[in-house]
Amino acid sequence: MFSRLLAAPARCRRFGTLSCLRNEALPLTSDPQQYDQEGRVIELLKSISPKPVPKSKFPYKEAADRSKRSFLPRVPELNKHTVNRYIYELTNFTYAHGTRVLIKELLAQVVESTPDLLSKQSYLDIVQDMHFYLDDAGAEETMDRMEESTAFKRDIDFHNVMMAFTVGKTTYDGRIERLQKLAAQGVHANANTWYYLFRALRTHSKRFELLELMPMYGVDQEPVFRSAVHSLSRKCGYRELIDFYNAHGYTLDNMDTYMLNRLCRAYLNEGAVAEAFDLAHDMHMSARARANLGTFSVFNTYFINRNEIYNSIAFCHKFQHQFKMKASHLLAYELIDKYLTRCTYFEHWPQLTRYMVHILTHNTAHKNFLRDGHFKLLANYARIHGLQDFVCRAVEPEDLAFGQEMWKALHWPRNVIPSSLDQNSEEFIEMAKLITPTPKTDKDLNPSDILKSS
């Protein structure tokens, strides 16, 4: 089945239409003004884009995608090569949160003391780093110093990184104003302009619209392929995502684990749980794309969103058995992070919560998964439901007994992923009822809902 669906055409085209995805089933955004502003961004981008849009001489980089490093680089001797390498290492990796102020000071010192030694790429990296961390004033000062000390100017490449994604809430007034100025000055976009604005858009339908426009303007979609896959997999069915993979030359034989996980997500969008699992298992066993804990998280999140935590636990059993990979710690973390502070209260919530916290806090490898914020949310949830003395880390013997009984009972039938609860054993169904909130009626007023809306 999967080989037929992913029978691969050569890389001879790009994904041409996503109109089938932009329909009434896809909510646009909860903020109409944001949707209108994103439309304005796209119109302004089109107005400054020649056909075909030229490529930039500089690589497209996203600060949000940087890998982590534990230690800051050493301050080098002052020569052109070492200084630019130093800037690269400061701005192309993510360091501990507490180092941010120091990194900002180090960048400012280098710009002030040796502005003539910095390459244009180094200036771009510094400006993008400052913009990413919401220091646009510092970025502008850096460009002022650059223009005073070098022949580099604020060209389209600098405007591009000033419109890139940031750690803050995405707003569009600054991007719209910048695009309007570029249009008034007759400055043309390059491909990176499209990529940075694509990543900055928050509304899926507008991302799809911009993605669809790229081939019309001669813009290669490949640099934003993974970001596009992420958006598509959240809203489309598996056939649409397979078409997108095919259009970029990807098949069962050359897709990687990330692509496999997103394809599983697209299957789950259509409720095709068994088919998604069969795909992941077949790919893993044939060593074409290995399943990982990200694969587990895709399925687990699906069940959590459906309030089927009994299926989350049953799937954990199946995943660990089939892939020989421990996932109970991730199950516990995601139940705490995504479910137990938001769900409708049920009788065995305290036992289940303490047991899941116990799984993490009593395992030295995973004891730091939970943060203070998790414990505070759990305490607040318990308090609003009348559990004034609840301590989530104070596991009792009866909690452990309940957890062990739950693990024992929640097993799917052999070689089957049931499509409904009643296809399981009586023991499974009885345990599932103990950890499933009672459906609300119009007369119910749930304190959890008050928390969600406040």
Question: Which key features would you list for this structure?
Answer:
two-stranded parallel ribbon; mainly alpha; 2 strands; 22 helices; 454 residues; 56% helix; 3 domains
Summarize the structure.
By secondary structure, this protein is an all-alpha fold. The chain has 22 helices and two strands.
Describe the fold and architecture.
The protein is mainly α and 454 residues long. The chain has three domains: 31-58 and 169-231, no CATH class; 63-161; 292-453, no CATH class. It contains 22 helices and two strands. A two-stranded parallel ribbon has the order 1-2. The longest helix is centred in the first third of the chain and has 16 residues, at 32-47. It starts with a helix and ends with a helix.
Give the amount of beta strand, in percent. under 5%
Quick check: average pLDDT? 90
Radius of gyration: 26 Å
Shape assignment? globular
* Helix content, binned percent: 55-70%
Q: How is the main sheet built?
A: 2 strands, parallel
User: How many distinct folded domains?
Assistant: 3
Strand-pairing-aware structural class: mainly alpha
What is the N-to-C order of secondary-structure elements (H for helix, E for strand)? Answer: HHEHEHHHHHHHHHHHHHHHHHHH
Per DSSP E runs of 2 or more residues, the count of β-strands stands at 2
Distance between the termini: 47 Å
Q: Give the count of helical stretches.
A: 22
Low-confidence stretches are: 1-28
Strand order of the largest sheet: 1-2
